[in-house]
Amino acid sequence: MNTAPRGLQSGDRATWFGLYYNISGAGFFLHPVGLELLVDHKALDPAHWTIRKVFFQGRYYESLAQLEDQFEAGLVNVVLVPDNGTGGSWSLKSQVPPGPAPPLQVHPEGPRFSVQGNRVVSSLWTFSFGLGAFSGPRIFDIRFQGERIAYELSLQEALAVYGGNSPSSLRSRYIDGGFGLGHFSSPLTHGVDCPYLATYMDWHFLLESQDPKTIHDAFCVFEQNQGLPLRRHHSDIHSHYFGGLAETVLVVRSVSTMLNYDYVWDMVFHPNGAIEVKFHATGYISSAFLFGAARRYGNQVGEHTLGTIHTHSAHFKVDLDAGGLENWVWAEDMAFDLTSVPWSPEHQIQRLRVTQKLLETEEQAAFPLGGTHPRYLYLASNHSNKWGHPRGYRIQMLSFAGEPLPRNSSMERAFSWGRYQLAVTQRKEGEPSSTSIYNLNDPWTPTVDFTDFINNETVAGTWWPG
């Protein structure tokens, strides 16, 4: 199993490879044997590649020959790691007999949406979907009841940062767009990845070959009852009535399998005009050989196996067109004012009111991860509803992203988007993406540094990608 990045500074081409038991039909990721090799692959001819360092069960060696010599001399304390086969808890095979069949959704009158090529049409929503070979799922020309509300909604990058006391785990920073979040999309299994009644679509791409390739059932589109009412009220005061509406959402899903992890990407379209992005991580954890103070860097998950500490982060871009192309960013919150009670001036009360602030520059509209941000943040147009309120879209941030690398890290600029929970920038053709596929192998001199996008330009009345 290889690691990234490929070295310790710009120009390096050296990768630590961890060796695992190759257990067929189960995740080998949980079966490290404790041997890791640092391979120098800077030469264009693989015949000239060399092993620069060897790590075996807690100790470093200059070469395989040195490890062999010390082993023959009885100086290597070898921990025997058994090959336990495919019958353990690490297997995805069910450990118990199947029970009764689970509930299924049905379309009483057939599906309420259609897929024409790469375009989805429902009674409320229309949009086009696709996959970037490196960046992953993306949606374009999103319209609600015929009115465009977003030009683009797309995944930009996924990042996993690891820690540990073995060489491969202590330095791994996987910038998955460099491997290909679309390229490594996996076929969706009917009834597991998506409902049986979902509509499934193939994806065709040209990458690393002269011939096109196809991932069958790379996308699925389906409606799903949320199990909660969108709204409801039951009245038993003065008059008796009930009103309610079940919430059914339209979902576009794809899955990227990045070696051990499976990332499930959902774009969810609600009947009230809201759009939701979800990111689920499943699959297998990454692990390392357990030795020394390993528990400082994770949890023991096997007799000789450490489940290594790590974080997950993903970055999305949305180019909103709220009521037109000219938009303003507003922050709203609440505050208490001390005021006299109008009918009893000798008494005072804390009165709650709305606060508003126009965010005019990119710096004002960039919110650091873990910092405070407005209770309500919305993008407003210069058009008003019939009560005089600007038409707009609220941006609601529900994020559990891992802590970003410290800024004094030599690699942090390669994924500096991780500093922010939300950043509003002026739309530019020269800033199409927050990252680059080349940031994976040279994070020390990144091709794209997202912080360069935030340079105090105005975001008042401008096109807006987030």
Automatic annotation (TrEMBL):
Keyword rRNA-binding set for record: no
Domain Copper amine oxidase catalytic, first and last residues per copy: 105-460
InterPro entries xrefs: Cu_Am_ox_TPQ-bd, Cu_amine_oxidase, Cu_amine_oxidase_C, Cu_amine_oxidase_C_sf, Cu_amine_oxidase_N-reg, Cu_amine_oxidase_N3
GO biological process, one term: response to antibiotic
Ranges where the Copper amine oxidase N3-terminal domain occurs: 1-59
Chain positions found as 2',4',5'-topaquinone: Y261
PROSITE patterns: COPPER_AMINE_OXID_1
Alphabetically ordered keywords of this record: Calcium, Copper, Disulfide bond, Glycoprotein, Metal-binding, Oxidoreductase, TPQ
Free-text remark on how the cofactor is bound: Contains 1 topaquinone per subunit.
Catalytic site: D176, Y261
Post-translational modification, as annotated: Topaquinone (TPQ) is generated by copper-dependent autoxidation of a specific tyrosyl residue.
Calcium in keyword set: yes
Protein name: Amine oxidase
Naturally occurring in which organism (per UniProt): Equus asinus (Donkey)
UniProt lineage: Eukaryota, Metazoa, Chordata, Craniata, Vertebrata
Gene name tied to this protein: LOC106826525
